[in-house]
Each structure stands twice: as C-alpha cells, then as structure tokens.
Design goal:
The chain is mainly alpha-helical. It contains 12 helices and no strands. Residues 142-212 are annotated as: Disordered.
Length: 343
C-alpha cells in the first residue's frame, strides 16, 4: 500500500517525498520485501538520528579534572553555633581574593588626591605613635610633626684664647640677683602676685578634651601602602590590640581599627616569609583573645559608643587569616574559645 500522507504531515527536514513509501506500523521489525518497505525503515531510523554529528578530534586535549580536595583543604565543620559556618568562610575567602584582584587593577578616570611638594599623606611607617594619632583622626601636627633640625655645635673652647672671666654682661647681671642657693631673688620694684589672683587661676574649670573623628581607610590612601609597609603596620595593630586587653589599658581598639586591619591584609600576598606568617598568626591570636574577652562580658560595661569593637569584626579578621593563608589549626584555638569546658 502506498503512503498517502499529505505534504503538511511530512517532516520538513527530510525534504519533499518523491518515491513511494510503504505505510507500515511504527514497530515494524520484519525484513523489507520491496523498495517501499525499505524506504519506510530508512526514514523511520533517520528520525532517531541526531541532526548534528561530531567526528572525533585526534589532536583534542582531554579536560583535566581538578584533583579531589585533601583533608587539609576541607574546612572543618562548625562545632559551636556561634562559629562561622564553612559556607560563610569559603565565601569570605573567595570574595577577599576577588577584592584584592579588583583593587590592584588599574582604574581610569579616578582623580588622585592633590598634594603639595612637601605634604605627606601618611605618617612614616616607623613611627608607631604617629600612626595611632593618624588613625584616631588627630590633626597633622601630631602625626606629621616637623623634623627637628640639629643646630651646628659651637666649640666651647676656642684655640689660642683663654677666658678667665665671663665676657657676657647678662651673666654678671644675673649673678647680682642670685641668692645664696643660686636662685634669682625678686626685686623690690617687681609686682608680687596677690593671693586672690592665684586662687582665680586655679579655680577655672578645665577645658573638655577634644573629640576627633577616626580616619577611615580610603582607596587613595591604601594605594600608597605596599606589602612591606602593610606588614609593618599590622605589627602595630597587634601591639595595640594586646594593650587594649590589659587591665589598665591606655588604648581603646574600635571598629575603625578592625577595618584598617582588614584592608591592610588585602595588601599582603599569599606567599610570604615564615617571619611574616608568624606575625599574622600573632595578629589572629590577639583578636582571638579580644573575642574571648567580648564573649565573657568583661568589656560590656566599658562600651561607650557604637564604634567599639564587636565579635563580628574579630571573626572577620580571624577567618581571613585562617582561610587565605591556610592557617587551619587556628580553628582549634577558636573552638577552645567558644567551648572552654572541652579543654
């Protein structure tokens, strides 16, 4: 029987039918008896073939699968509910690396801060006290003091001369007013301060200390800091954090210092020396000790403003050092901080 299908029922991709094709059931499995049945089986099998085929490429390089992660690379699961989760730590590490790459890329159409010939935008990296004043927002006179010029020394004894008496008349005048103890006696004609005047000056109220706005780490400032300077400054922040933990603390670490610490870490590369890695571990341990004091409530009564350091800032610094520089063993110390009863 000839196939009487209409043109609309034909598959357009197969072309227009010219030769007669047998009308057999779709599950026909017999041996074709004539050409029409053979064409039916050919067209049926052609519909099951892919439209596009690809020949094997003899020069193709096989895809290299990444090696399975080792036990050291797998982040340990969080034991305490307050510990950051492995997903959060992995996301932080990825975003920190992307932030560091984006920051190092050249940027166009960005105005550089105007500077004069003798102006310094940052203190000398060797001056620790000046950097504390700089981050605290103090005026330039405190973090960029003028350099002291050494006066040219004069010879006390001149060659070829000998003086047995003072040639300066002021010395003789001063000696005439000196008493037996060597102090200058007041003249009779000099006015003496009255007790009323003395009491007035002592009873004046003391002026309140000035309030400074902390200086935030801006991109224009961070571009002036290289890895060597960043590592040196991170040593200062470790020292200040340890001073903050002392009972009679002289310094108060705030969230601004934590932001400076985080941004300074972005200026440090992945591969550093053993001494620099030891310094980063000390920084993480300092923030672990600070976190322990915050969780124990020893600093709850001392919180004076919203800028005081909080546990989230500590976790940000600790997680960055542990994840980016692979210091996984520090999580054991973090678990001891969160679970002191398991020691």
């Amino acid at each position: 029987m000839l196939d009487t299908w209409d043109d609309d029922e034909e598959d357009v991709s197969m072309g227009r039918q010219i030769l007669p094709v047998a009308n057999l059931p779709a599950d026909f499995e017999g041996v074709p008896e004539d050409g029409m049945q053979y064409l039916f089986t050919v067209r049926r099998d052609a519909r099951h073939l892919p439209h596009v085929t690809r020949a094997p490429n003899p020069y193709e390089i096989p895809d290299r699968l990444p090696p399975p992660p080792s036990s050291d690379d797998i982040l340990p699961p969080a034991v305490h509910p307050e510990l950051p989760t492995p997903e959060w730590r992995t996301s932080l590490e990825t975003r920190f690396r992307n932030f560091r790459k984006n920051f190092d890329q050249p940027t166009i159409h960005v105005s550089q801060p105007a500077r004069s010939a003798n102006a310094h935008l940052l203190p000398d990296f060797k001056e620790r006290d000046c950097w504390w004043a700089f981050v605290s927002g103090r005026p330039r006179e405190e973090w960029d003091p003028p350099k002291k010029t050494k006066k040219k020394g004069q010879n006390k004894f001149e060659f070829g001369t000998m003086r047995g008496f003072s040639e300066d008349k002021t010395d003789e005048d001063a000696s005439t007013f000196a008493g037996p103890s060597g102090t200058r006696e007041a003249s009779i004609d000099e006015p003496q301060p009255t007790p009323a005047e003395t009491d007035t000056t002592t009873l004046l109220p003391a002026a309140p200390p000035p309030v400074y706005t902390p200086r935030e780490p801006t991109p224009s400032l961070l571009r002036l800091i290289d890895q060597r300077t960043a590592l040196h400054l991170l040593m200062y922040f470790t020292y200040w954090t340890n001073l903050h933990l002392q009972p009679g603390k002289r310094l108060r670490v705030t969230r601004t210092h934590a932001r400076w610490t985080f941004f300074l870490l972005s200026r440090v590369e992945d591969h550093i020396s053993a001494d620099d890695m030891h310094m980063l571990r000390n920084l993480a341990r300092a923030y672990l000790a600070l976190l322990k004091s915050l969780l124990s409530g020893s600093h709850s009564k001392e919180r004076a403003s919203e800028e005081d350091i909080d546990p989230r800032s500590c976790w940000l610094i600790i997680s960055t050092i542990v994840g980016v520089w692979g210091q996984r063993d520090l999580w054991m110390e973090a678990e001891e901080v969160m679970n002191p009863q398991k020691r």
